[in-house]
Amino acid sequence: MEKLKVKVNGKIYEVEVEFEGHVSSAPVKQSAPNNNSPQPVNPSSSPSSDGSGVQAPIAGVVKEVKVKPGDSVEENQVVVILEAMKMNTNVVSEFSGKVKNISVNVGDSVRQGQILIELE
């Protein structure tokens, strides 16, 4: 059993790894921090062409719609859950408003930037 430190999204985890069979090791080159690393996807909303809308931050499948037309929505409230690559992503509204229209249903495939919910 060997203990290793692994850095994931800036957080360091200590893990124990058991190797089976012959394992050869090679020196590991330490690299300088890369400021061009991908940033995590932040679910967001932005104005639609005819008002305010909540957009899909990534392409995926609608797992759950947590609001219905007429509901009041607060800033940072989760309104839709998308599934992409076996992971769920909460889609939140960046502003308060009232749900005018829901453009998607559970099971729909959506593309990044697609309007999911219109707010007024």
Description of the molecule:
The strands form three sheets. A five-stranded antiparallel β-sheet has the order 3-4-11-9-6, with no helix packed on it. The chain has a four-stranded antiparallel β-sheet with strand order 8-7-5-10, with no helix packed on it. The chain has strands spanning 2-8, 11-17, 45-48, 51-55, 60-65, 72-73, 78-84, 87-92, 97-102, 109-110, 115-119. 21% of the residues are buried. 0% of the residues lie in helices and 48% in strands. Mean pLDDT is 80; it is low at 36-51. By secondary structure, the chain is mainly β. The protein has a domain at 46-119: OB fold (Dihydrolipoamide Acetyltransferase, E2P), CATH 2.40.50.100. It has no helices and eleven strands.
Could you state the CATH homologous superfamily of the domain at 46-119?
RNA polymerase II/Efflux pump adaptor protein, barrel-sandwich hybrid domain
The radius of gyration computed from the alpha-carbon positions, rounded to a whole number of angstroms, is 21 Å
What is the arithmetic mean of pLDDT?
80
CATH architecture of the domain at 46-119: Beta Barrel
Q: How would you spell out the order of helices and strands?
A: EEEEEEEEEEE
Bin the helical content: under 10%
Strand residue content: over 45%
- Give the overall shape: elongated
List the strand order in the largest sheet. 3-4-11-9-6
Q: Oligomer, anyone?
A: single chain
**Poorly predicted segments:** 36-51
